[in-house]
């Protein structure tokens, strides 16, 4: 399966990437900062992007499924990562005929 993972650099994403690769999937991981994904593997491709910028989501084309594990960027200001991001990702999957879309969120979980 060709899996497009949004949020591969976060705490949950860093656990999912090696699991997906070990299961034999081709993984494309999108991150605001690609350097934050330290994993390397022949079936792993890391791309720069941001769910609040729809033009960066065209990379979902050709994938079998999209898995979204969002965490808002830290800092001040309006946090609309979930609402804007969900809208943009949904539109991108529809536009590029990706039929499987999964969301995992844990923004309110505290250690």
Descriptive report:
- It is a single chain.
- The chain has 111 residues and is α/β, with parallel strands linked by helices.
- It has helices at residues 13-22, 81-95, and strands at residues 2-6, 26-31, 44-48, 65-70, 100-105.
- Strands 3-2-1-4-5 form a five-stranded parallel β-sheet, sandwiched between helices.
- α2 (81-95) links the parallel β4 (65-70) and β5.
- The longest helix is centred in the last third of the chain and has 15 residues, at 81-95.
- The protein is globular, with a radius of gyration of 13 Å.
- It starts with a strand and ends in a 6-residue tail after the last strand.
- The mean pLDDT is 89.
Structural class: alpha/beta
Compute the number of strand runs: 5
Helix content: 10-25%
Q: Please tally the helical runs, counting DSSP H or I stretches of 4 or more residues.
A: 2
Alpha carbon gyration radius: 13 Å
* Major sheet description: 5 strands, parallel
Unreliable spans are none
Write a short abstract of this structure:
By secondary structure, this protein is of the alpha/beta class. The chain is built from 2 helices and 5 strands. It has helices at 13-22, 81-95; strands at 2-6, 26-31, 44-48, 65-70, 100-105.
